[in-house]
Amino acid sequence: MKKLFYKLKYLLFLTSMCFSSMMIGQKSITGTVTEASSGEALIGVTVLIKGDQARGTITDFNGEFEIVASEGETLVFSYAGMEEQEVEVGPTDVLNVQMSSNILLDEVVITGYGEQLRSSFTGSVSKPKIEDIQQAPRTNFQESLTGNVSGLQVNQGSGQPGAFQNVRIRGLGSINAGTNPLYVIDGIPVINGNIGNESTTSTPMSGINPNDIESINVLKDASATSLYGSRGANGVIIITTKKGKSGKPKFNFGVQTGVSNVSLADKLRPLNSAEYVELMKEGLINRGFAENDAEALTYLTDRGIDPAVDTDWFDAITQQGSFRNTNLSVSGGNDATRYFVSGGYQQNEGVVIGTGFTRASARVNLTTKFADWITVDFNNSASYTSQNTALDAGAFANPVRSIFRFIPTEPVYNEDGSYNLGINSGFHPVGEMLENKRLSNILNLNSSVTGKIDLMKGLSYRPTVSINRIEGADETYFIPDFGTGNSRNGYAEADFDNNTNWMVRNLITYNNYFNDAHGLDITLGHEAQKFSSYFVQTLIGNLPFPQLNTLSNGANPESISGSKTANTIESFFLNTSYNYQGLVYLNGTIRRDGSSRFGSDVRYGTFWSGGASVNLHRLSFLNGNNAISALRLRASYGENGNESISNFASLGLYSTGADYNGNPGIFLSQLANPGLTWEVNRQLDVAVELGLWNRVDLVVDFYNRRTSSLIFDLPVSLTNGVSSVTSNIGSLQNQGVEIELETQNIENNNNGFNWSTSFNITFNKNKVISLPEGDFADGSRYREVGKPWSTWYFQGYAGVDTETGEAMWYTDETESETTTSYNAAEPYQQGTSDPDFYGGLTNVFSYKGINLSAQFVYNYGGKILHSWHSFTHTDGSRSLSTTGNLARSIYERRWQNPGDVTDTPQFIFGRNTGSRNRSTRFLYDGTYISLRDISLSYSLPKALTQRASIDDTQLFVRGSNMWIWTKDERLERDPRTDAGGSIDQEIPIPTTFTFGLNVSF
Amino acid sequence: MKLYKYSMLIMAFLVVSSCGKSFLELEPQQSFGLDVSIVDFKTLNAATLGVYSNFQSENAYGWDFNVIGDLRSDNTYISSKNAGRFLVFDDYALTDQSGRPRNEWLEMYQNIVNASNIINKFADVELLSSEEEDGQDLLGQAHGLRALSYWNLVRLFAKPYSADGGASLGVPITNEGTTGTLVSPSRATVAEVYNQIISDLTMATSKISTTETGRFSKAAAHGLLAKVYLYQEDWSNAVTVANTAIGEAGYSLYGSGDEWLSSWGANAGSEDLFTLVNLPTDNLGVNSVGGIYDQNGYGDILATDDLYGIYSETDARRDVMSRGDRADGEVNAVFAEGKYPRGETGQDYLKIIRLADVYLVRAEAKARMGDEAGAIADLTAVASRVDPNYAETTATGDDLIAEILTERRKELAFEGDRIYDLTRTKSTWTKFRTFDDLTVSWDNDLVINPIPLDEMNVNPNMVQNSGY
Fold it and tell me: Taking every annotated instance into account, which residue ranges of this chain make up the domain SusD-like N-terminal (chain B) (predicted)?
């Protein structure tokens, strides 16, 4: 991709000044100038002789130059946006020079089907610093994108190691079609969802070893994403893995080990026995079941409450987790073949007992030049991950649920050491986690071959074939003694979730440069891809032997099922870029996609984009300006689609599985919508990129992203026999501003003190633009034109009557009248779960090999719902249930005496006053700031290490989630919710502290 | 030359990678398209079985129906040690957002739509002449199952017929099936829903020929129809149809208390006119009517002392209950596990209508028509079969009717029937609870379900029940 040409007008003039005679000692020097990281030839680089500006030239289309100079003279290579290089002329006549950019505004970015310099790209792309991601003590690189990329949100939700990460770029652009971006690994679109049946949160992305990643590029606007057509609507995340560089073998070895604990543990602490008993006694007296404390206590002890028992279920369920990571890679090669080979192993124990994750990964990336005009890339990777998982949400076996719900007067174990099964219907949380097996394994094999065949000057043909096989295998076993396995006298389940994704792509690329002024770059492609899955699930009961727990050991085969599904996509696309002298860039893309997911009438969609950018800093009036080192304007507009819906969403279906009395039955499962069509996403992006004094880089993007033909499972009258129909219902808009700022605050090249700052902030406003069928309530949400899609909708809580201690709600949205009857209160809109703004701030300090880096992540606004309030904030209605412990706020803020002003009603034993019903009482401000990453590293002086033939040795300590501040003091949980803005009973996010060592030689 | 060789390779690659037209034509592997879903005997049978299967689910007979009818009445209550299941029924504290009423509503309408599809598509189903009779049988079963769905809906979501002769709002009648047009129906009156049920059951009685265990039999159609007439206070029709039901061959009252006791569990007895068969593959586990009574499961729902006390000591039916201490809960509580002995495995058969029920329907209808001798004969037939010491009653008039209703309570306890006897007879009862008892009247708004919010939100023609 030789897009890298430009020319300055005044240099043309300079070069026309010929020197007719050669001076004594002068010789002709030739060479090639390339970009350091990509190896691409740089066209139009100014080559001058220091002190004699009159003699100069520029590099030609192949990056080559020829200049007359004498030995001892110094050549100065300069190119806007790159660091200037000075090279002394030696005895040789050949001088090859590599130039690199260390500033954000002109790095190499990977874009649709190629790579180019940011300054030649018309689209919006963010490229987080990969070092921060590689060494973060986390399993999945996606987790580390938080706060590092403007416009990108990661909703983690669960602290389960290896969990699925919900990534959203530029707001919620879709409802029932997917909202996750497309992930492209080394050119291959891959799947990114839960694998298997057992894990509530898993992803093949966890199989990627972050240390294998060379770069991550996040494509955001239409110009960048529309080349991905029907899959580009939610943005594209391009992951490029490392390639070898020619030279002697280079080894990299890294180890990292540490511990993790529950973050925000104080907020999660349940009531202790004394607090619980105090609350219950007061509730009994309030109810009139006891006259006084002593009577109340008798009432409790008569019913099996033993105040002497004080179980901290938090301690029983959580543990100190661990994190260990080992990584070894070697890369190198010669002119013909380059290689990168790596192996990694990670072992991670979660903060909830029995949870964990291991990953073994290997990769071989080879590049071979068969002939001058044919180069082939082989990328191969394999990873095997094993996740010990737990159930979530309301499941009885969910260990996290028991932290908040189990009463402290119940012991974990009986006196004889056996599990106390008198709680939670025998689902003992410790036993469930330690005696049972819930293992989710994923084998991920990825292999691709890409050729690059140069047919003639500027014209290449690039075929790719790839295959990606993801095999999920769940192994579970449940002992007969209690809970899950009890009713079947022990059982085992084995599931096999096999996913195959193959792709064939043909690309023809053409680039050329005409009349020293016009650059043209064309990519024409065809792509066909098929995703298919085969899921087999088996269950065998009456298997009482924990030590022999494979299927063959059971006596009662209960069920076996297998299902297949597939989807295909075929596309043609064209990408054309034109530039004039590196000053003005124009880009246009068009792509036509056909997808098996849509009905035959509406199967094909055409997507396109246009973009333009101007490099103002290369115009003469800014050239040489010391203050403004870079100034670019760019704008793009285009349209892409979203085909992420279920495979047969448009069909009316009768599904099997409704079996009765041993015979197969079928049942209406889905209503037809033959007109169901692509969701269309149109996006306008306008941006300014500004560089000041080569020390400040600022990128500001304004975008307007509009989704029409919004795909939604439209709720319909349940009398239709279904609850919803997949429909195109209207349109949605996300408008926003993204700001990325990088500054070199203190710069001292000679190993002195350096301080740099990266800051990003994103404001996104989500709004429903049209709903042709009218506004509608949708469970706890209200969908109204002009309002954010994620608008909450339920009763408004009016606090507690100070005289009676009764809960009150507003009768309606006027909030002018209150009622003490929940059923008499009308639901109304309660704001959105979207944040007002969010982002990250990273400061890096370095001094003589010591490096300190700290990243803060923040989120402002957005209302989040505690979705288990009806069990934890019952104000007494659960009476003595063993799963009836109460939130700390009930203890601390309950109304006790007339005149008390509080939001928590009087505690009345065994009476359901309705106060636990969903209302704004359980809606909280989601604002927080967290110290997401902090690291301190020390690189041993080279003088010391080189004696041992070691290039670099680095020691480091790293912390993740070390600190968090939440604005809403009422909030009793971690504000980092799932994507829906709900606090679920999920595994808490850990705080991890590690130390480690990296050596390269 | 080399270029030529490589060009050939490229050409070959391009040819191989070009897609056929069928590349984008994929068919689902686990579903039939709507247009080919009910076309022949096999699919007709499968579609009928699908409706049976849906009746087994948690929010139908698998859990809710059998629990709610007792919990709202004077038969059962929720222990102070509970997992929170069904508390809102115990407390009469449902809201329009409550999950169970929503799912009960949805599942019954799923049944109605699926049964209607069978009924409406039947004319186009290609049946061999040898399949004709069985096909008609399936059509009859579909009518029966649709009637049963409306019957559950109108009992759960509407005032009793007797409140005002069926004038109050019932539930929507939607018999169009899946047409491609979405519907947002309004509520018919209770009387209209009863007429629909009667019409469907009448069709069922004329078409059904099966006597297979687990299927909706002709006797079940007659039996249910008799009960519908009883609720309508149409005593003479109740007697007539009950006579037909009782006269159907193949069913008989149990001969002894032991036989009665052994009829529970994963088997059908001679009284079962229609029982839902639960196989291990249908396993709802602890989330089943068995699981909520089973002290090894939730064990949250206990029988009231009041219920326990109405049985004589020699009444075998009392043996489905036992006294014991609930772990860390009520002392000397009454556990009610006996009608669902498979407990938390969720594998008990679910009895939908039994012969004894029909006898008591007939007894009550006769008593109310003044045929007290006939009523006492039916009552005695039911009571004496399980209690060797039962002495024939000498009661007359309202006392006799009261005794028949008490016998219904004894016979049908834990089968989800009690509340409807209380409301249709406009009774007031004591709701026994862990802490404090309530006095509840049949016309209490919160004794019936709210129309679910999900329905209210999308259906402009829907009217909410008062009190919600």
Answer: 23-230
